[in-house]
Amino acid sequence: MSKISLQCRECKKEYESTFKYICDECFGPLDVKYDFSPVSKNAFDGREHTYWRYFELLPIQQKSNIVSIHAGMTPLIRAEKLGKELGLNNLYIKNDSVNPTFSFKDRPAGVAVSKAKEFGLSAVGCASTGNLASATAAHAAKGGFPCYVFAPSDIEHAKIAQALAYGSKFIAVDGTYDDANRIAAQIGDSKGIGIVNINMRSYYVEGSKTLAYEVAEQLGWQVPDQLIVPVGSGAMLNAICKGFEELQTVSLLNDVSRMRMIAAQPHGCAPVVDAFKRGDTEVIPVENPDTIAKSLAIGDPGDGRYVLKRLKQYNGYAEESNNKEILDAILLLAKTEGVFTEPAGGVSVAVLKKMVEDGKIDKNDTTVCYVTGNGLKATESIMEVLQKPQTMKADVAKISAVVQ
Ligand SMILES: Cc1ncc(COP(=O)(O)O)c(C=O)c1O
Ligand SMILES: [Zn+2]
């Protein structure tokens, strides 16, 4: 069991691990810091096929506090067909759309809800662009917590239905994600509710770093040459970097510094890409996001400036893709690899395609493209570009005439 503390990302002041997320001195975000000992490569052999296999690298002190719905250990697919289509020899898709609630959000939500249990909180909640709502609600249901979701009212129907089915109280805010986030922050603090991605954020982001652990383990404890990560708030990209760095700290990896991080955002809400291309260190918020990638529609990304730092640290790049490119990429991935993703995953694949076309990716590099949400959650935007099914009378002769 590692001893954990919290440390300010800015001024490095340390705190005990409590229900606290902002530095008293400089208002910087607090990160979980561990007192790690080296871990051997076979330490995880035979363990459960969920991200809780990395228990000693996660911020929960007692195993009895784990709230698990068996998320993680999702497939790392050797994408030969998509790679061939794009001209890449070593392409992998990390298919996180097959988690129990069908997005990567089961990772951060599960860790935060478990920590809420460890802290003895009486309720949890989240501000969500859609996927976090169901991930938090499902973990809350399993852990026996009331759950409050604050989300913009225009998100996809399937995401609302899912979060309601798990029993959450869903507040559909008539406004943007940033409006929902501000309200959730105030209510969480005034009522002592563990808002997983706000006042539990230090613990929440720890779940997402398992996206680095799993990829490294699935590659036989190797660091990929480059990683393409969809960015909303930027928490996931930052956490993936932290995850690889920690694997180096515990001697499971070396040479993490040579990996290359690529941030992918949708046109219509690409404040991090815009800042990167301006050569800026600060993000200018987008006031009214407009994209079919609703799960990435975060105009004022909380971790935006840290993503920019990570891109600098890891020889990175940032690129955007528009609605048409996103939809084309969804179909390309579906038709080559049999993986149906929502627009956020389409953004990653579209950015990958654009970078290959622009000569920015070496065809022999080991490239991992993160696909983080499931297409079944966003059929309304995807149906637009699909051919309508042909309705026919149940007549074998007539139907037979249109087959082949
Ligand atoms: C499917 C999907 N991918 C990526 C992201 C972006 O994650 P982050 O906000 O940590 O950058 C989100 C955020 O909601 C998401 O739902
Ligand atoms: Zn500080």
Automatic annotation (TrEMBL):
Pathway(s) = Amino-acid biosynthesis; L-threonine biosynthesis; L-threonine from L-aspartate: step 5/5
Q: Name one GO biological process term.
A: L-serine catabolic process
Q: Which domain of life is it from?
A: Archaea
| Necessary cofactors | pyridoxal 5'-phosphate
Q: Which Pfam families match?
A: PALP
What is the reaction catalyzed? O-phospho-L-homoserine + H2O = L-threonine + phosphate
Positions of the Tryptophan synthase beta chain-like PALP domain? 68-373
Q: What is its EC number?
A: 4.2.3.1
Query: Which Gene3D superfamilies would you find in this protein's record?
Result: 3.40.50.1100
Q: Which residues bind pyridoxal 5'-phosphate?
A: N131, T372
What keywords appear on the UniProt entry? Amino-acid biosynthesis, Lyase, Pyridoxal phosphate, Threonine biosynthesis
Q: Which residues carry this modification: N6-(pyridoxal phosphate)lysine?
A: K105
Q: Which GO terms describe its molecular function?
A: L-serine ammonia-lyase activity; threonine deaminase activity; threonine synthase activity
What top-tier enzyme class does this entry carry? Answer: lyase
InterPro entries from the xrefs?
Answer: Ser/Thr_Dehydratase (IPR050147), Thr_synthase-like (IPR004450), Thr_Synthase_bac/arc (IPR026260), TrpB-like_PALP (IPR001926), TrpB-like_PALP_sf (IPR036052)
Q: What does this protein do?
A: Catalyzes the gamma-elimination of phosphate from L-phosphohomoserine and the beta-addition of water to produce L-threonine.
What family does this chain come from, according to its entry? Belongs to the threonine synthase family.
Protein name listed in UniProt? Threonine synthase
List the gene name: thrC
